[in-house]
Amino acid sequence: MVMIFSVFLGTVIVHYKKYQIEYIEQLIRMSQKILLLLRTTAPETDRILSEIMHDEALDKIDFNDENYSSPLSQNDTMKIRELFSLLGHYDIDSQIKYVEEFSGSFKILKQQYQDYYQSHHRLYIAFSLMGGIFICVLLI
Fold first, then answer.
1. pLDDT above 70 covers what percent of the chain?
2. Which residues of the chain fall below pLDDT 50?
3. Other beta carbons within 10 Å of 115
4. Who's near 44: CB < 8 A, 6+ residues apart?
5. Rg of the Cα atoms in the chain
6. What is the end-to-end Cα distance of the chain in Å, rounded?
7. What 8-state DSSP symbol labels residue 90?
8. CA-CA distances (angstroms) from residue 138 to 61, 84, 130, 132?
9. Is 79 exposed, middle or buried (0-12, 13-18, 19+ CB in 10 A)?
10. Which CA distances in Å does 31 have to 19, 24, 87?
11. Three-class SS of residue 96?
């Protein structure tokens, strides 16, 4: 039972790391959609938010959460909050520039998360398996 639990725990951690990458991909997709809207029609903020809130490709992002949280670090979550608070408060060129910076920084962040996942996902499983074996040996 301990072995099953420890392997399950390692698998959950690996899936969470993968979820973080998918979340970043959706943030990048969202920023690209915002850029497209700002560059083409320059709609009101409410229309931009409505467009991205109803996009099924952005299903992992919760736009209704007042205390917006994400599976990312506190610093990265603050960047996301700043993006939402910036929309509609400045001229179009400033908004476009900020959204481009946001998109670029999250593309770099995605690469960092992918590199970390590629180098560590097997370690999580191995350590959870070894931890389970160790605990089983101690209990015997």
1. 96
2. none
3. 10
4. 88
5. 20
6. 13
7. S
8. 43, 51, 12, 10
9. middle
10. 18, 11, 11
11. helix
Tens digit of pLDDT for each residue in 109-119? 999 999 999 99
As a whole number of angstroms, the distance between CA 16 and CA 61 comes to 15
Cα–Cα distance between 57 and 37 in angstroms, integer? 16
User: pTM of the prediction?
Assistant: 0.84
Please report, as a single letter, which amino acid is at residue 21. Answer: I
What is the predicted pLDDT for the residue at 67?
Answer: 57
Per-residue model confidence (pLDDT) at position 117: 94
Distance CA 114, CA 3 (A): 28
**Locus of tokens 């029609």:** 41
What pLDDT is stored for residue 116 in this prediction? 94
Q: Which amino acid is at 58?
A: L
CA distance 92 to 39: 8
Residues 82/90, Cβ–Cβ less than 8 Å: no
